Amino acid sequence: MGFIGKAFYAYGLWAAKKPFTAIFIGILVVVIGAVGFLNEQTTADPQALWVPPASRANVEQQYFDKEFGAFFRINTGWMSPLNEAQANEDIFQRPYLELLYWLQYSIVSDIATVNEMDFTLNDFCYKPISGEGCLVESPM
C-alpha cells in the first residue's frame, strides 16, 4: 500500500473513532470555503475584468459610451468573390481591391438628401479628434 493509501486508511480509522469531530471539521472546512462567496461580484462585461478603471483605454471607452451609447458598434462589411466559380479565388487581387476602393469612395463622398436637407458622412460619423475628419477604418 502506497503513501496515499496509508494516509486515507489512517484518516478513515480516526474518523471512525471520532465521527462527530470528523463531521465538525468537514463542516468547518466547507463554511470557511464558502465565506469567499459573501463578497462575490459577477459581471457580464469582459472589459471590466481585463482593463484597469484608471487606464487610458477605459477612460476613452467611457467617453465613447457617454457620447454614442454603450452599444454603439462600428459597422463591418465583408467581401467575397463575385460568383460561385470564383469561390476559392484570392480576393486580394486588383479587381476586388478596385471594387473595395470605389465602394469606400462612394460611402465617404456620397450625399444623402432627407427632408430637403443634404447630409454627408462627415455630418454623423465618429470623430475621435476634435476638428479632424471621420474615423474610417479601411484596408485601403
Descriptive overview:
The protein is mainly α and 140 residues long. Helices cover 49% and strands 4% of the residues. It contains 6 helices and 2 strands. Strands 1-2 form a two-stranded antiparallel sheet. The longest helix is centred in the N-terminal third of the chain and has 16 residues, at 19-34. The radius of gyration is 31 Å and the shape is elongated. The termini are far apart.
Summarize the structure.
This protein has helices at residues 3-17, 19-34, 46-50, 56-68, 94-109, 121-124; strands at 112-114, 117-119. By secondary structure, the chain is mainly alpha-helical.
Task: Give the key terms.
single chain, 140 residues, mainly alpha, 3 domains, two-stranded antiparallel sheet, 6 helices, 49% helix, elongated
Question: Which strand order does the major sheet show?
Answer: 1-2
Poorly predicted ranges: none
Cα-atom radius of gyration: 31 Å
Shape: elongated
% residues in beta strands: under 5%
Number of strands: 2
Largest sheet: 2 strands, antiparallel
Instruction: Give me the number of helical elements.
Output: 6
Secondary-structure topology with pairs:
Elements: H1 3-17, H2 19-34, H3 46-50, H4 56-68, H5 94-109, E1 112-114, E2 117-119, H6 121-124
Antiparallel strand pairs: 1-2
